[in-house]
Amino acid sequence: MDSAFLSASGDPLWKSVANPRRSILFNMFHVAAHLVFFAAAAASQEHQQGLELYKQRNYEQAITALERAAQKEDPRSAEFKESALLIGQSYFQLSQAPKAIPWLERVKSVNEANYMLGYAYLQTNQQDQSRNAFARLFGVAPESAVGHLMAGDMMLKKEFEEQASLELQKAVMLDPKLPQAHFLLAEIAIYRGRLDEGIDQMNRELALNPGSSMAWYRRGDARTRQENWDLAIPDLQRAVWLNPDFSGPFILLGRCYFKKGDYGNAEGILRRALLLDPQNYAATYLLGQTLMLAGKRDEGRSTLERLKELKQK
Q: For residue 313, how many other CB atoms are within 10 A of its CB?
């Protein structure tokens, strides 16, 4: 994959922004269960046992204990709702979407349940139900342009690209001036190498939202991949001016200047990128090459030596 499409962590942009680590998901779900339903001193022994097993991430045994508890609990009680949420979460963590769904459907008023339901429905080929779950999560009408946009956005975060594309196309059919929809369609096209299509969609986004630093960045990104340095540079400059704290546009802008033989500008821009992201491999490599070609060979070699350290991290 071209480095232009990678975040500092090496992931595609939508992955790096939107895919939390499993441990973060665990903590979020665990805290949510207690904030929403923490109840009652009267919780059964099976319920307490299941909760402790869930805290230990022993999901299979947690399910067994909590299902026993749920059989004895009043479906209207806070204890039952907590049991249902934790059972659904446990099945979800075990990648058993069909078993997670019926439990999570019992607690649709809980944000975390709708988050998981959105993806569980996708995993079981229920796209309409997935959209409904995400609509509940964000408080929008599922058949509205915004409903389709939010569903597409969430689907894209977990790499359901085909389903996301359908949702986003429906969104722009309903409202061609909806911000972010063209941007996400452009993201899919650029990531898949359909650069002209991606640039066209990004043009539409920028016509609606010229203050989007990410749209300028991604259009510059696509033009960099086309090796159209002169068109890429103004886009990347705008991205930098709108968001001077994100290293991505600096790295690509440094690359453009490097390719044009403008080593002075390349050096300054790449040094700025490394101030923002000191561990970035691509920026370090480009700066080392720039210094070598600019006649600063000792510093260039020293900079390139750092690549060995970065590889080991």
A: 6
| pTM for the predicted model, two decimal places | 0.83
Helix (H, G, I), strand (E, B) or coil at 7: coil
96: left (phi over 0), alpha (psi -120 to 50) or beta: beta
Question: Looking at the domain that runs over 17-124, which CATH code has it been given?
Answer: 1.25.40
Residue 190, token pair as written in the block: 């650029």
Give pLDDT tens digits for 65-80: 999 999 999 999 999 9
Mean predicted confidence (pLDDT) in 30-57: 71
- Please provide residue 243's backbone torsions phi and psi, each rounded to the nearest 5 degrees: -140, 85
Q: Which of 137, 72, 141 is nearest to 104 (CA)?
A: 137
Does domain 179-237 fall under CATH 1.10.10.10? My reply is: no
Tokens at 234, concatenated: 């103004």
CB 88 within 8 A of CB 104: yes
Alpha-carbon distance of 196 to 186, in angstroms, equals 9
Nearest to 183 by CA among 135, 132, 155, 217: 217
Give me the chain's average pLDDT, please. Answer: 89
Of 243, 300, 260, 309, whose CA–CA distance to 280 is shortest? 309
The Cα–Cα gap between 115 and 167 comes to: 17
Return the bridge partners of 6, or none: 12
- Token pair of 117 as six digits: 């339901």
Domain with CATH 1.25.40.10 in the chain: 179-237, 245-313
Run of H or E residues at 261: none
Helix (H, G, I), strand (E, B) or coil at 8: coil
Length of the chain: 313
Which region, left, alpha or beta, applies to residue 246 given φ > 0 means left and ψ of -120 to 50 means alpha?
beta
